[in-house]
């Protein structure tokens, strides 16, 4: 069988192994493998090694125009292709000139402080309440909060130590004094051993999907009509800090953003500046009242 007909047996296992050796996160490995699997299905029975730059362009155009993939997904596919051809196959194929679509600039949905309080008050289960309080109070990603270990909580210093967070970076974030009472009650009742929030078997950590479900149920019970997810708590944490006068550079450190540009998006949703700008209608109405 020729190379163009030979199926890429063992390719996905090789991808996982090679990415693992390069210390890629589990989430990135899963995403890249999914992208390459889509590539293989699209060109079957042609082997990926036989594909040209023009084939890859055609593939990307198909994903954009016919499949309706978002810009962020297309960029991820391009990164996966680069890993496959440059890092794994050691090919001189020109991926640098592949078109990278611009990401749509969408502002994050943010909850008001009153809405966050309503959500927290809508939760009766101690474990669920502690998870949501910790997520909001420390600005954590859902993948970070479920992977926290008991030893990561440093009550003496008032910080939480995050190990190998997004981008395989360690960082510290705040441990809210207002959380300590609830956290102590939780630790006393559940007695977790390794992971702070254990799954049902007591060995693995609580699942991200379970946290999402807890948040969705709480938001619904709290009467929240905005399009929100548990990640909205992280957006709200950053926005509320900014509105309280915290320097953007400190917020960047707490969130673990590599670039300040990522953190600057919160200046566009903060009511601190936008909410104080008078509308032209105000001036019109004041003039009319005179």
Write up what this structure looks like:
The chain is mainly alpha-helical. 52% of the residues lie in helices and 5% in strands. It contains 14 helices and 3 strands. α2 packs across α4 and α5 crosses α9. The radius of gyration is 23 Å and the shape is globular.
What attributes characterize this protein structure?
52% helix; disordered N terminus; globular; single chain; 290 residues; hpI Integrase, Chain A; DNA polymerase, domain 1
Strand content: 5-15%
**Order of secondary-structure elements:** HHHHHHHEEEHHHHHHH
| Uncertain segments | 1-5
User: How would you sum up the major sheet?
Assistant: 3 strands, antiparallel
Q: What would you call the structural class? A: mainly alpha
Number of helices: 14
User: How are the strands of the largest sheet arranged?
Assistant: 1-2-3
CATH class division of the largest domain:
Mainly Alpha
CATH topology of the largest domain: hpI Integrase, Chain A
Large-scale geometry: globular
Radius of gyration: 23 Å
- Overall pLDDT: 85
CATH architecture of the largest domain: Orthogonal Bundle
> Distance N terminus to C terminus?
89 Å
Domains, number: 2
Percentage of residues in helical conformation: 40-55%
| Full CATH superfamily name of the largest domain | Intergrase catalytic core
The total beta strand count reads: 3
């Amino acid at each position: 069988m020729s190379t163009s007909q030979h199926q890429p047996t063992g390719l996905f296992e090789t991808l996982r192994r090679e990415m693992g050796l390069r210390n890629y996160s589990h989430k990135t490995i899963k995403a890249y493998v999914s992208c390459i699997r889509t590539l293989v299905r699209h060109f079957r029975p042609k082997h990926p090694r036989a594909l040209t730059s023009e084939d890859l362009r055609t593939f990307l155009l198909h994903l954009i125009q016919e499949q309706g993939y978002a810009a962020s997904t297309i960029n991820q596919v391009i990164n996966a292709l680069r890993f496959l051809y440059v890092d794994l196959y050691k090919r001189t194929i020109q991926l640098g000139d592949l078109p990278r679509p611009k990401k749509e600039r969408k502002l994050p949905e943010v909850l008001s402080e009153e809405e966050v309080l309503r959500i927290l008050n809508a939760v009766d289960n101690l474990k669920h309440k502690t998870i949501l309080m910790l997520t909001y109070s420390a600005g954590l990603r859902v993948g970070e909060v479920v992977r926290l270990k008991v030893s990561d909580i440093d009550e003496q210093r008032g910080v939480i130590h995050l190990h190998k967070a997004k981008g395989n970076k360690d960082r510290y974030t705040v441990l809210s004094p207002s959380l300590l009472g609830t956290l102590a009650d939780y630790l006393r009742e559940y007695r977790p051993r390794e992971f702070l929030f254990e799954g049902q078997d007591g060995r693995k950590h609580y699942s991200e999907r379970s946290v999402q479900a807890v948040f969705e149920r709480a938001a619904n019970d709290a009467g929240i009509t905005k399009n929100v997810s548990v990640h909205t708590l992280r957006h709200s944490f950053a926005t509320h800090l900014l509105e309280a006068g915290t320097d953007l550079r400190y917020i960047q450190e707490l969130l673990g953003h590599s670039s300040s540009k990522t953190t600057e998006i919160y200046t566009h949703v903060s009511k601190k500046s936008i909410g104080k700008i008078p509308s032209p209608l105000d001036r019109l109405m004041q003039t009319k009242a005179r």
